[in-house]
Specification:
single chain, mainly beta, four-stranded antiparallel sheet, globular
Length: 127
């Protein structure tokens, strides 16, 4: 069993930056691909970014490409989401997730590919 705990959410002005963190329990973190998803009120959960188990491959939704960066530190069992140039439409609850099976960009962009989920952290971008 893996437990994921997100932190770093809060209120930020449009154009600002924020960094989310997700700490995983367990000794097998380095074998999981990790992803970030978000869900805005009244909308379905959507893919934001994913990173392979080694950190060698990263994938982004078009809506955040060039603004967000996903990274991981396997020694700290932590995955990060650095968010720059934030927009009001980035307002959502952000979730991190772990996938125990490996796959490419299409696979990791699907929420059903993930086996473990955090509780989410709210990010609110004011205009």
């Amino acid at each position: 069993q893996v437990q994921l705990v997100e932190s770093g959410g809060g209120l930020v002005q449009a154009g600002g930056s924020q960094r989310l963190s997700c700490v995983a329990s367990g000794r097998t973190f380095s074998s999981y691909a990790m992803g970030w998803f978000r869900q805005a009120p009244g909308k379905e959960r959507e893919f934001v970014a994913a990173i392979s188990w080694s950190g060698g491959s990263t994938y982004y939704a078009d809506s955040v490409k060039g603004r967000f960066t996903i990274s991981r530190d396997n020694a700290k069992n932590t995955v990060y989401l650095q968010m720059n140039s934030l927009k009001p439409e980035d307002t959502a609850v952000y979730y991190c997730a772990a996938a125990t099976r490996r796959g490419g960009s299409y696979y990791l962009a699907q929420s059903r590919s993930y086996d473990y989920w955090g509780q989410g952290t709210q990010v609110t971008v004011s205009s």
